[in-house]
Amino acid sequence: MSDPLVGLLGFVVALALILVGMPVAVALGLVGAVGFAILNGVSGAAFVLASAPFEAMFPYTLSVIPLFLLMGVFAARCGLSRDLYSAADALVGRLRGGLALATIVASAAFGAICGSSLATVATIGRVAVPEMRAAGYDDRLSAASIAAGGTLGVLIPPSILLVIYGILTEQSIGALFSAAIIPGLLATLLYGLSVAIQVRLMPELAGPPRALGRRERRADVLAAWPAALIFAVAIGGIQFGLFSPTEAAAVGAAGALLVALARRALTRPILGAAVMEVVSTTGMVFFIIVGATLFNFFVETAGLPQYLVGAIAESGFSAGTVLLLVIVFYLVLGCFMDSMAMIFLTVPFIFPVVTAMGYDPIWFGILVVTVAEIGLITPPIGMNLFVLQGVAPDLASRTVMRGVVPFLIADAVRLALLVAVPSLALWLPSTMR
């Protein structure tokens, strides 16, 4: 069996192991180590096993992960999610379907200081579900707006998936964050448009608009200034060249900590739980990175990326056809696999193929994360749907899955726009200092 075929078989085995429930880090590391031993012998595999953990953990940029996670945890613990929801309600609550719109806007804003889709769904869901039920909203719209809005935390910076993509492909994390801003705003706009169309066609989905006094609206909007300031300083600092991504993460985490301390929201038990949550999540991600590094060694040694590039060149497929096949591949895989696992497993051999076809690596990163985002609300494995049911156990799976269909249509439109107009992702990075 040729080396590239060994690499392809390794990918299939790793995919199967992940789908049957083996931890991602173990599956990638095991396949990488065994595959490398087959290609280079046991002594070669032993050397890689000894060096891979150090090489995987060496990059300074990895420190951005726990720092952004810490920022998100502090923001969640000090009540910024409720402030953002109230501010969004004050801005759009008087419109038909206003609470659903407020949920999407608040999810986008909280995702901008959290970086995690699952945390956004869990945090905003606890606030939004009771509010929308009390206002007479149908569970289809309320559940779907929370689940779909939560996906914005994957794309809008700071995004943990973008950090991981940047580390795997050696791309600028700052440029990736900058590239994600306009697509993230576009996603928010299209989700809002989806809500507006739904309540126009089916008025029974939404309760009556809520009218707030001007003074109350102003107070609710102003209460969200700490969240806006944290985002503006952290992400604006990257955009204007004031901070590196790691420095921005540290500034954001410190800002969120100061807000939590000022609000007296951090007792010793809460602080301990917050730190343990960050340590646990960081350990999981770093363990996966070590496994992915072993898998990358194996894939590169097998020559799988070069084999795929050569096979595509011989097939005569156009660059557009290859891109379409890659998108379909990711969409199908996203229905059955966690987005982080999907990126770790596929990027090592898909990325060289796509860049060899002439596509911009920053733009492709936004495309990959967008497709991963769609997978979060796509049955049967859509993780956001399950997290939402954890927040509101009485929500029927069928209700949630029916409700997300209009938002998936909005996602398809956004994906088409991103492919047709790459400058949506590439214009802002070109302006970075």
UniProtKB/TrEMBL annotation:
> Pfam families from the entry?
DctM
Keywords in alphabetical order: Cell inner membrane, Cell membrane, Membrane, Transmembrane, Transmembrane helix, Transport
Question: Could you confirm whether the keyword Membrane appears in this record?
Answer: yes
UniProt topology in membrane: Multi-pass membrane protein
Domain of life per record: Bacteria
Transmembrane segments annotated in the record for this chain = 5-24, 30-50, 57-77, 97-129, 141-167, 173-201, 222-242, 248-266, 278-299, 311-333, 340-359, 365-392, 404-428
Main subcellular location = membrane
| Cell compartment(s), UniProt | Cell inner membrane
UniProt keyword annotation of Transport present: yes
Q: Name one GO molecular function term.
A: transmembrane transporter activity
Which is one Gene Ontology cellular component term of this protein? plasma membrane
Q: What does this protein do?
A: Part of the tripartite ATP-independent periplasmic (TRAP) transport system.
Instruction: Indicate the quaternary assembly.
Output: The complex comprises the extracytoplasmic solute receptor protein and the two transmembrane proteins.
Query: NCBIfam families, alphabetically?
Result: dctM
Q: Which family does it belong to?
A: Belongs to the TRAP transporter large permease family.
State what protein this is by name. Answer: TRAP transporter large permease protein
